[in-house]
Amino acid sequence: MEKVLLLHSSCDGQTIKILRYIEQQLGGHYLCETQDIHQSPEIDFTRYDRVLIGASVRYGHLNKKLYQFVEQNQQALDKHITAFFCVNLTARKSGKDTPETSVYVQKFLQKSPWHPKLLEVFAGALRYPRYNWFDRTMIQLIMRMTGGETDTTKEVEYTDWDRVSAFSRAFKQL
């Protein structure tokens, strides 16, 4: 049985939800362990066969701790079967929903010394009622400028679960 380390850098939980879905898709042939990059102490990568990192974008940026984690663990990551996915609201739009067309994935690849074997980008979720006043106001402004949902009473999940399933299958085949 292969051991898979599922790591996340999540703002509001959609990245974690996607990781849990991927874990289900991997099925019983994989023993999965999930950890938060922001709270993980030293990781013994020798305990794992595969590593998958999911990270979300907030206000146009991936978390700095993600980059620090990757820099500190690049050699270990390079010795494993690895994959990375990025979660953001821009990916809800056609033409901005592939690793090649996502400015966030491209920026990650430019800034990161680690280049995973598999990349993907998924649209996230908009959860206005769960945000504090500042985040709700700022996200509403951004959504207004980008033609998105602006009704602050709504929660909208843009994640394409069929694409997540396809990514899961591709991760298995690495």
TrEMBL record:
TM region positions: none
Sorted UniProt keywords: Cell membrane, Flavoprotein, FMN, Membrane, Nucleotide-binding, Oxidoreductase, Porphyrin biosynthesis
Gene3D superfamilies found in the cross-reference section: 3.40.50.360
GO MF assignments: oxidoreductase activity
Needed cofactors: FMN
InterPro entries given in the database record: Flavodoxin_dom, Flavoprotein-like_sf, HemG, Protoporphyrinogen_IX_DH
Cofactor note: Binds 1 FMN non-covalently per subunit.
Protein name in the entry: Protoporphyrinogen IX dehydrogenase [quinone]
UniProt source species: Photobacterium arenosum
Gene label: hemG
